[in-house]
Amino acid sequence: MATSHANPEGRSAGGVRSWLKLARPGDWTKNVFVLLAALFWLPNQLPITSALERGEIADKLIATLLAFIAFCLAASGFYMVNDALDAESDRLHPVKRLRPVASRAIAPSSALGVGVTSIAAGIGCGFAASWGAGVCMVTYACLQLFYNLKLKRVIFVDVTALAVGFSLRAACGAFAIGVQVSPWLIACVFSLTLYLGFIKRLCDLTSARKAGATEWKSRAGYDNPFELNWLLGISGTLTVLMYLMYSLSTHAQRIFGVRALGFAMLTPLVLIVVHRFFRRANEAMSDSPLSALLEDRSVSIAIGLFIIGVVATLYMPQVAVLLGDLFLVDVAPAATGAGR
Question: Which of 105, 100, 96 is nearest to 287 (CA)?
């Protein structure tokens, strides 16, 4: 007769599906910020004229990949730690109660152990990418430690800390390939992820109220949808303005030349995505970027067109010629060194 191997806490060890759900690989899409520095650096290295240049570029791209993997491991580790610490409160939320630890599919102690191991592996991958990337990973880990201990329970500070964490992702990508960090890149990433952080808080609140879970309360105290909508208005406007100001800045023109205007022309797509996330949050739909891509046609089309537009602007010389013919501009030629 089969016997149960429940652990002392009365919870199962969890299957592969539960562990994958706990690691949230769908949220690894948030780590694309690590890739931004390489994406904007590579065009100014083309054309590649020697085997030595090919080797150097390959090394930098491998370092970028290691930095990306480092944040995937660390982020999953902290998801596990977070879920283990928040299991009791998550059980009061209609959506969060289905998470593996809250639903008792995985024991909190197991989640903590695997989470800490995953975080350590992420830091190791960071140092494998470069010393600077490793320091970014240690800084990120310290930030997340303070976040779990205190910051996540302080209204506004919690989301600000998360936005700083995403800014560290962008900085880590720059350190991985050995280029200076653009303040404009950090500002754009910070404002966007600040907005997405408030989107998540509004999704949590609206989904709980929609399901009638009146006992659930945000750990940081977000209990007023009007306040959250105000914060979203501020951060959403800041996101669009930062993107547009960067596209039109002399900083971007110095690096990309007339191609920077191509980024500015993609601003309507940024507005569409910002609005759709706001609407989804007010309708208590998932805040996950991957879910939005799969479920919301407007988001998937806008992001797809945005990616096509960025790649065409960066890598197709004909686009630069067309922009130069269309617009009256007085910009310096694009830099031949590290673009960022």
Answer: 96
Residue 142 exposed, middle or buried by CB count within 10 Å (0-12, 13-18, 19+): exposed
pLDDT in tens, 121-156: 999 999 999 999 999 999 999 999 999 888 988 999
| Cis peptide leading into residue 47 (ω within 30°) | yes
How many angstroms separate the first and last alpha carbons of the chain? 64
User: Are 139 and 206 spatial neighbours (Cβ–Cβ below 8 Å)?
Assistant: no
DSSP string, 168-213: HHHHHHHHHHT-PPPHHHHHHHHHHHHHHHHHHHHHHHHHHHHTT-
Which helix (H) or strand (E) is 164 found in, with range?
A: helix 157-177
Query: 106-115 in b/e burial notation, b at 16+ Cβ within 10 A?
Result: bbbebbbebb
pTM, two decimals, is: 0.82
